[in-house]
Amino acid sequence: MFQTFDSDADPSRGAERVAQLRDWLAERKLDGFLVPRADEHQGEYVAARSERLRWLTGFAGSAGVALVLADKALIFVDGRYTLQVRDQADMAVFTPESLVENPPSAWIGDNVQRGARIGFDPWLHTIADARALRAAATKAGAEMIALDVNPIDVLWIDQPAPPLEPVTIHPIAFAGELARDKLARLAKVIGQQGASHCVLTDPSSVAWAFNIRGGDVPHTPLALGFAVLGADGRHGLFMDKRKMGIETEAYLTQLCELHPPRRLEPELAHLAAQGAAIALDPALAADRLRMIVEDAGGKLVEAPDPARLPRAVKNAAEIAGARAAHARDGAAVVEFLAWLDRAAPGSVDEIGAVTRLEDCRRAAGEAAQMPLRDVSFDTISGSGPNGAIIHYRVSRATNRRLEQGELFLIDSGAQYQDGTTDITRTIAIGTPTDEMRERATIVLKGLIGISMLRFPPGTRGSDIDVVARLAHWKSGIDYAHGTGHGVGSYLSVHEGPQRIARTGSEKLVEGMILSNEPGYYQPGRYGIRLENLILVTAAEPIEGGDIAMHGFETLTLVPFDRRLVAPWLLTRDELCWLDRYHARVLAEIGPLVGGETLKWLEAATAPLR
Known about the structure:
This protein has 609 residues and is of the alpha+beta class. It has 3 domains: 11-155, 3-Layer(aba) Sandwich (Creatine Amidinohydrolase, Chain A, domain 1), CATH 3.40.350; 168-309, Creatinase/prolidase N-terminal domain (Creatine Amidinohydrolase, Chain A, domain 1, 3-Layer(aba) Sandwich), CATH 3.40.350.10; 313-604, Creatinase/methionine aminopeptidase superfamily (Creatine Amidinohydrolase), CATH 3.90.230.10. Helix content is 35%, strand content 18%. The longest helix has 27 residues, at 316-342. It is globular, with a radius of gyration of 25 Å.
């Protein structure tokens, strides 16, 4: 299995560990300390060594920050984790706060005492985040103190060692462009930004630029390291060579100079002292890097990561790989759904569903000679009330059976060498209630609305997020997460900068892949989410129109549960879209399955009209 079901989140240790942290702070005359769920690269997925927030609080979500003061401790989470945090952290120790509506910087500005000294690790906060924290502290008459040592690393006696998983070369057949050509493009952009050098801090950008992959973090094929790219075409890669075989090392030495990670700080300081203009992305780069450049007298250029947008816009080989991966993955999910439909209510539990789905993906990969490399995230397998926990992770302690009359939400994905997948379906176990059908159809209307959308060049994710919520709002309901995130090409399943959300400020351009996943959640009862991945298509003229319009191609090929569709709530256009989609699923996935599964698929994709 690519995921486990043991939970190492332990809320019972929170009080003891917070007390230890407070003692450490008091000895250094500090009044508080921030513990983000982050590593030096600010990535969503972190190595076990960097799970400092989980160690301190027990909270295992992918986003959050703890603020420990002498007299109180807070934990900031977003809408995905409002239920989960109460189960995993000790509420007698930590007070939950909104990471979105009242983030740490806002809370500090409004609440800390004048003269307070709040410590933070500048490796674990971006330039922009640290700037906001300092401004908030100044407003309150307090001070943010950048520490040279992280107290969690001192107190965490059995902290894991840094990962040393092998680095591999990503074949040109899947990358679609040689690394030397990518690096030449990036060098040109760096010069245009007014910089002589740029530090790539995001391991996804490093992986994309050098056409390498790794295994240092769960479920995302990343090799942790930094790159310093020169506008003159001379580059350095700061990565542990123990992760590289002879072939990989020989390949990389043709593209750059290889340095151990410990050399990054002195090499960056040396460049800065020589008068280099060094570009850092303030939204991604650690504040420690800014400090190194400025302390050495270098010029800081604040500019976007030059690889981020090119990485998001997939080339022809990556798009072909995504289509192939989704066809293979669609066949696997259909095999799973057909199996689940044959199972009697109460005979399958959440863990059993996860295990079976991974087996189906593994078999589909082997049949196509494209092995399943990993799942793209821990499968969200939530039955009944667990489905209402937006980022629920099943463990042996929380495992439930899929019982008659309940809904089952399964959100999962796969990593194949030719593409990354992410799909959510909500399934009725037995006969759903009228309320369940109505709510599920509202969610489906949101997904179809995005799928059918045509939009002009320059449109941003924030411009279209409302389309997925129209039916929700008409019914007086909503969901506390974005509608879509970017997806990488055998990289992170959550990739920026594109997203469909109120905060989605990046323009949507041809070649970007996003998720389309509206939802609805009834705490303590059920959750509904439906998700397809979609590809932004070229802008094309519309007959009689004045402006060429982009659209979306749906990549995911799996039917929706007909038992949860109320056709009378769909418009004629929505019904037509659904029937055409199901016909396409049958046409493309039908040849990849057989026997009882094919019979199930034929029934599942029959026209609703």
